[in-house]
């Protein structure tokens, strides 16, 4: 069962990585990310530009996507999201100092919209329980560690559901339905056409199927063990979303920072979905 483990900041370095690698959610209930007074306008979902569900910041090149802003407002908004990226990175280093330079910072997102009102296809609907897998950004076996901060100004929690299966139980349940792949020619074509950034490996192929099969299975959604998690406003949490089944049911105003980590940098690489899936499927997935 994915537990919510509340840890006081001073104990982070000792326990944080163990909690996360065990498949639990680490809640820092006294650590808010503070939106400054001159940034408060950005909490209005009208800043979105058409179609996107997130504002997305790329720390590699400083670009901000998904906003209908220009000039000074764009700079101010980008600075806010960049500040969150730095906040989350500093926290990740405190939670897991031994990950060191192996921890790779990826995109930062800001989600000012209301989750409960999103109308999305079942595959994109994060109100359904799922493990994260990226169609366009293969992790090639690296872990997906995410840090979230609820900045809702009205004090509303982020309402999640957390699945109760271990990743191993989840993988065993769906393994008979997993198709082999990707065919190497197809993987090369996806990369050549820039549909994927990097090569989609058998691990990525399996994880994408687990994401889709789990969401599409109505019986699994309703009957798998699960609990509601009300993640309070003005708190921050960290979780390995590639192994913990989660669903976002309601809430508004969230920041999120994604990190990737090679399994060999974990305290216990045997707890990575890569190793667990390789065990379940009886073959290498590199
Ligand atoms: C998700 O990662 O599935 C959604 C998280 C959220 O927006 O609360
Ligand atoms: Fe997710």
Give the ordered list of helices and strands.
Answer: EHEEEHEEEHHHHEEEEH
The CATH class name reads Mainly Beta
Q: Report on the biggest sheet.
A: 8 strands, mixed
Structural class: alpha+beta
Task: Tally the structural domains.
Answer: 1
Mean pLDDT: 95
Record field, number of beta strands:
11
Name the strands of the widest sheet in spatial order. 1-2-9-6-11-5-3-4
The CATH architecture classification is Sandwich
Number of helices: 7
Helical proportion?
A: 25-40%
Instruction: List the ligand species.
Output: succinic acid, fe (iii) ion
**Which stretches are low in confidence, meaning pLDDT under 50 for 5 or more residues running?**
none
CATH topology: Jelly Rolls
Distance between the termini: 28 Å
Using only C-alpha atoms, the radius of gyration works out to 18 Å
| C-alpha geometry | globular
Assembly type of the chains comes to single chain
Quote the beta fraction: 15-25%
